[in-house]
Amino acid sequence: MTTDLGNYDAQAELLSALRNDEELATLSKGGFHNLVAKQDAPFPRIVYSQLNNRPTVYADGEEVRATVNFQVSIFTDSESIIHEKAMIKAVDRIMKSLEYGKYDHQPLFETDTKLYHVALRYEKNFYGDDE
Questions:
Q1: Which superkingdom does the taxonomy of this entry point to (predicted)?
Q2: For the chain, which residues score pLDDT lower than 50?
Q3: Edge-to-edge strand order for the sheet containing 115-127?
Q4: How far is CA 11 from the centre of its chain?
Q5: Looking at the domain assignment, is residue 73 inside a domain?
Q6: In this structure, is residue 71 part of a structural domain?
Q7: What stretch of H or E contains 31?
Q8: Summary mean pLDDT of the chain
């Protein structure tokens, strides 16, 4: 059976894991958003983006490995920044449970919006199976 690894719905898996984590759901007062948060969503909030989902290894013309990358961003304002570390730890724990490895962590301050933004990037390899 051919597995279309490049089209695996990793995004649905991630959103489900984020939403179903009680600690993170409680901390993320503004919720979870794909690509862009709603303008009026309170802080702190999480924005996730799938950066990549592509086949990376082929054998005998079949996909045998796909690589998926996500950025999970935590946005806080001056009042909610106290929750930032706990949210980073929760996201790291969730991503580890999904077998993603972190490869980047960028703390940023957005001067135009006066928001704190931590961009966390993760990667996972999915392997096909012979069923």
A1: Bacteria
A2: 1-2, 130-131
A3: 32-34, 45-59, 62-76, 115-127, 101-110
A4: 8
A5: no
A6: no
A7: none
A8: 91
Are the CB atoms for 17 and 98 separated by under 8 Å?
yes
Tokens for 86, please give them. 């706990």
Q: Which residues pair with 53 in a beta bridge?
A: 68
Instruction: Write down the pLDDT at residue 3.
Output: 55
Beta strands 101-110; 115-127: pairing state: antiparallel
Q: What gap in Å lies between CA 14 and CA 94, rounded to an integer? A: 9
Residue 61 within a domain: yes
Task: Return phi, psi of residue 67, to 5°.
Answer: -115, 130
Are residues 123 and 103 in contact, defined by beta-carbon separation less than 8 angstroms?
A: yes
Instruction: Give the pLDDT score at 40.
Output: 93
**pLDDT number for residue 53:** 86
Query: Per the domain annotation, does 29 fall within a domain?
Result: yes
Please report which helix (H) or strand (E) contains residue 91, including its range: helix 84-97
Domain interval for residue 35: 5-66+79-115+123-127
Q: Domain count for the chain, please give it.
A: 1
**Residue 6 confidence (pLDDT):** 55
